[in-house]
Amino acid sequence: MADQYAQSSEDIRPTGIPAIPAIRWDEPPEGPVLVLLDQTRLPGEESELVCTDAQALVEAIRTLAVRGAPLLGIAAAYGVALAAARGFDVDEAADSLAGARPTAVNLAYGARRAQAAYRTAVVDGAGPERAAGAALEAARALHAEDARASAKMAAHGLALLEELLPGGGHRILTHCNTGALVSGGEGTAFAVALKSHRAGSLRRLWVDETRPLLQGARLTAYEAARNGMAYTLLTDNAAGSLFAAGEVDAVLIGADRIAADGSVANKVGSYPLAVLARYHHVPFIVVAPVTTVDLDTPDGASIEVEQRASHEVTEVTAPHVPVLGMEAGGGIPVAPLGTQAYNPAFDVTPPELVTAIVTEEGVLSPVTAEGVAGLCAESRGGRVPID
Ligand SMILES: CSC[C@@H](O)[C@@H](O)C(=O)COP(=O)(O)O
User: Class assignment of domain 156-378?
Assistant: First the structure.
């Protein structure tokens, strides 16, 4: 079945990760800026969005110009550094960045980490310039750590796939976007699939389109094409028949927050995949850095799930015209005017449906509260408190 869905070779552009990095710090003569690859315009247009202050970054986060848990953390840390470098109130900037979206714990983690570096420098007697430098250093360190974590997760994840599915020929289903667009490196779940591809073990990457904002269709398909991977796009609700046809060997997804009991919040549509995977005896694997684990959130029910605007569901736009963050009325209505939509950005998968959590520290399977606590104890003795 799979091969009839293969894209033709002209459709594949094996050019590696995006030419424009997902995020970069720049210091033109007019002053420091944070430059983002505007993800609302992909795949049609690779364009940069320049943020000169934390408020612009908060807006970019809310409209999903920059998105995905690890990258949100990196962005927030740079945002605090930007506020410091431009002489704005650092605590205010950290608060608004940490609260820009509620579910991805990395966002608050990154903001608080850069804020803590700034405060420590001030307490140690540094002037504003040196303290701003300390915040920037913290952001750069987080960026580099995430790249290293990404490479380790890819290695651990591939080893797990080889153990669970010996002999290669992996047919992997993924949801949302978890590649270089969300990371200092090559991503989380996508990085595992990419490593499998490079090892010659990936037969097919099944890409859920990921309604309503199409992160799978717009972003994961873009990354898969750029990396020359064999991939096929499906609507989210086609996943059931794909499992039933025996076409999925494993599910690989990322996470926005992992609670202390091992519950996993990820893009809405992840939980139904976990249920399908269990029914069809397919491993359901979560790949996330330890910065996504939040021991202060005891369980899945305590995770705040972001609710987004109705118009993201009730309207569509033409291809390559950004829909994300548009005011109601900006797209073409597909429902009667005034229709309200249930539009949670994430859902929560309970630990008993998760076969394994792959982190840079190694693989946790089965997923237990003790195991989750152990992951954090090993990697983050000096964890920055977040609120
Ligand atoms: C490694 S990214 C993991 C998650 O952040 C990703 O799967 C996801 O749900 C992103 O949601 P988004 O709303 O696009 O920020």
Answer: alpha beta
Atom of ligand 1 nearest to the CA of 267: 9
Q: Amino acid letter at 30?
A: E
What are 65-109's pLDDT values in tens digits? 999 999 999 999 999 999 999 999 999 999 999 999 999 999 999
Domain with CATH 1.20.120.420 in the chain: 23-145
Q: Which residues of 112-149 are buried (b: 16+ CB within 10 A; e: fewer)?
A: bbbbbbbbebbeeeeeeeebbbbbbebbbebbebbbeb
CA of 104 to the centre of ligand 1 (A): 8
Which residue in 256, 294, 296, 347 is the catalytic one?
256
Indicate the DSSP class of residue 67. -
Let me know if 256 is a catalytic residue: yes
ipTM above 0.90, yes or no: yes
Residues with CB under 6 A from ligand 1: 64, 67-70, 104, 176, 178, 182, 187-188, 215, 254-256, 266-267, 345
Q: Six-digit token pair at 363? A: 């693989």
C-alpha distances in Å from residue 98, one per residue of 69, 112, 127, 176, 304: 12, 7, 25, 22, 14
Q: Which numeric CATH code is attached to 23-145?
A: 1.20.120.420
Paired with 129 in beta bridges are: none
Question: Looking at 11-15, 139-143, 204-208, which range is the least confident one?
Answer: 11-15
Within the chain, which residue ranges are assigned CATH 3.40.50.10470? 156-378
